[in-house]
Amino acid sequence: MGDKVLVLIKPDGLVKSLTGNILTRLSETKLEIAAAKIVRVSRELAVEHYKFLSGKPFFEDLIKYIQGEYHSRKKVLAMVYVGEGAIKKVRELAGATNPEEADTVSIRGQYGRITTKGVYENVIHASSNPEEAEREIKLWFQPDEIVFDIYPTEVRDVTEKKRIWSSATGKS
Ligand code: UDP
Ligand code: MG
């Protein structure tokens, strides 16, 4: 199966209508897409995702950025790709963290920017190593949202409150 990698198209990528372009470039890698969904990012999810950066001066701005607080679209597109060298391939396509240092043909080099607050709005996230990929994928996705069994699962009886579709007919 090869590597697994969590890929996020961040709120700036959605605002700039880059989704189609980025999906095309990801499909050119010949990696296989295993999961995809649009997510409204809670503060809790944002903080857990970026927990290793919590001591950085830009941390609070980074949390606001990934939550879409600086953009009109408060959502991200979260995906899982699998395949040989998936992490390396997607990170190469993404380019360097700092969009000004990123290769000009990379996604971050082409579309990223540094804000006046100093946040790197770099359009795309990709896990940096297999351990981070596993942690991030398990944070963003439940097993049933991924079409392959990429990590071991177990079946348990769980009772939880869950929002379901209302039985009343919608008016819209
Ligand atoms: N970031 C930033 N300023 C920095 C370093 C990072 O704004 O000096 C942001 C940027 O959006 C980056 C994210 O924090 O994508 C996560 O940082 P990381 O070092 O993990 O870089 P990445 O793995 O995304 O290349
Ligand atoms: Mg990283």
Automatic annotation (TrEMBL):
Domain Nucleoside diphosphate kinase-like residues, every copy: 2-148
SUPFAM superfamilies: Nucleoside diphosphate kinase, NDK
Keyword Lyase tagged: no
Pfam families in alphabetical order: NDK
Record carries keyword Chloroplast: no
Catalytic-site annotation from UniProt: 125 (pros-phosphohistidine intermediate)
GO biological process, one term: GTP biosynthetic process
Molecular-function GO terms, alphabetical: nucleoside diphosphate kinase activity
UniProt keywords, alphabetically: Kinase, Phosphoprotein, Transferase
InterPro entries: NDK-like_dom (IPR034907), NDK-like_dom_sf (IPR036850), Nucleoside_diP_kinase (IPR001564)
Family: Belongs to the NDK family.
Name listed for the protein in its UniProt record: nucleoside-diphosphate kinase
Organism: Candidatus Danuiimicrobium aquiferis
Upper taxonomic lineage: Bacteria, Pseudomonadati, Candidatus Omnitrophota, Candidatus Danuiimicrobium
